Amino acid sequence: MSKLSLINLEKQFGSVTAVHEINLEVADGEFLCILGPSGCGKSTALRMIAGFEQPTSGDVQIDGVSVVDLPANRRPTGMVFQKYTLWPHMKVYDNIAFGLRLRGLSKSEIDRKVNESLEMVGLGSYGPRLPHQLSGGEQQRIALARALVLEPKILLLDEPFSNLDALLRVRPREELRRIQRRVKITAIFVTHDQEEALSLADRIAVMNKGRVEQLDQPGNIYASPQTLFVADFIGVMNLLPAVQEGATLQVAGHTLALTESAQPAARGSITVAIRPEDIALVAQDHPDAWQGRVEQLIDLGHYRRAIVILPQPDQTLKVYLPKSLDIKEGQAVSLLPTRYLVYRDGQLDAEIKRPLSTGVLAFNA
Q1: pTM, to two decimals
Q2: What average pLDDT does this structure show over 261-265?
Q3: Cα–Cα distance between 80 and 99 in angstroms, integer?
Q4: Packing angle between helix 166-183 and helix 107-120, nearest 10 degrees?
């Protein structure tokens, strides 16, 4: 296990700054996901850790020792690429053994290590096969075995499951996490898929335009996104413009309370963010109800997502509804936000919960 430190790490390509002075500490044995949209700089950051890109400035340290001047083949890292990069003319055994042979290990030692790595990824009998005889998921596991067989201090993975269908990604994710915990290796996983990040990571670094917008545990990032970008990027979120009037906010023709700490700060643009699961269905005569009409119902298996149109102004809300409720498209509904986040100039300003009272028909879990 090894600790990784990124210190003021920056990368420029001509006049474009792809990564802006990232400072990041990754603990021994931690599984960190770098998450963000295409072009946000996440893969560039990973390639600087691996040694495939030279930083414009800053440092990369492993166990407190700078590796920024070391070439990729001399760094204590192992890389799993998006496109597997298996040599098509080599058998699986030889693909995995290649790096060990370069290190001059004996044949018996190579046999032991290759067989152990194949068993680790659940493909113990696949050594004699050629890459084209494997499925995409099996090729990915061989690429993982090839990286791990060199016993790197840090495992780097660049969107390794992006070539697999969504349904086929679940099992490799679970196996990767199991192997990482078993080997107790520090891992950095780059992805644009929030489900992958939320299900795999000990912590997630959400990147946007070359900067880390938030670094936290998955549950905290989902529940309390610190910026408007993270709120919109992670999960499903309703974003509504708001205007402050004293100690209240005017949102979609309705009044929402502010916390005492937020009341004096009547500045900047304001957005209210509400998760679909934080909207309750209430009785029509509830005094604080938001009235709306169901425009569309989307069946998502054990629950439904309703698109509700609000009359003032003409805005929509995404709401999760239990399938047991007999609600149809075109039907009028009464809603009540039970928790909402307030953002000023794109930064989280307040988190507000309103207790449920009488008249609640169902709370959407």
Answers
A1: 0.89
A2: 53
A3: 14
A4: 130
